[in-house]
Design the sequence.
């Protein structure tokens, strides 16, 4: 069962959705603005998603983050739920931002998702750390799949470019409400947001 993510109070941006949660209000869906998916490595990678969310502070948008704060490897359904969440939100996002960080992992799932998105009509923004293992492969493949697409070299410029690619908020606000299937009850143990404050996002992961 997926759960509803607690939300920052109205007026604080960006709105934030973290796997395995689905949004359940107009505050994060039909009136919150365009959406950005943070695609890239998770396992054996630094928590670059937390840095990206910090860089997006104040932007009127919705952020989809696949890096969940906890993942129970003993739960046989957790992997399927994660894959389904990523699939749903990759399709749902207006822009998908890829960041390939440094670390020992070649990030195979992110490479697969990059290939799928590059072959589609989805708006993508791509950045590659100078120490990423398959940096050259990413550049060469994108030269073929998306000629002219700039590959950024640091997270800050990648995030800035992703924001610039987002559609105008007024064009997204009429897209309609969340799916009924997304609307489920939030468990009592989820941390609620104190009035007037946004949680430190690093603590959510």
Sequence:
């Amino acid at each position: 069962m997926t759960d509803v993510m607690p939300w920052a109070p109205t007026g604080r941006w960006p709105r934030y959705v973290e796997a395995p949660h689905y949004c359940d209000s107009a505050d994060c869906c039909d009136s919150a603005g365009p959406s950005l998916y943070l695609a890239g490595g998770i396992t054996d990678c630094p928590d670059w998603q937390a840095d990206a969310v910090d860089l997006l502070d104040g932007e009127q948008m919705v952020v989809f983050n696949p890096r969940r704060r906890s993942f129970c490897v003993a739960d046989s359904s957790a992997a399927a739920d994660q894959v389904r969440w990523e699939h749903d939100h990759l399709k749902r996002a207006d822009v998908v931002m890829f960041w390939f960080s440094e670390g020992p992992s070649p990030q195979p799932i992110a490479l697969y998702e990059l290939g799928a998105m590059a072959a589609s009509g989805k708006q993508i923004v791509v950045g590659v750390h100078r120490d990423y293992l398959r940096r050259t492969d990413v550049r060469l493949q994108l030269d073929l799949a998306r000629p002219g697409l700039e590959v950024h070299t640091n997270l800050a410029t990648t995030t800035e470019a992703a924001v610039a690619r987002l559609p105008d908020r007024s064009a997204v606000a009429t897209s309609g409400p969340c799916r009924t299937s997304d609307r489920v009850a939030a468990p009592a143990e989820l941390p609620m947001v104190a009035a007037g404050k946004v949680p430190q996002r690093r603590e959510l992961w």
Remarks:
- The longest helix spans residues 78-92.
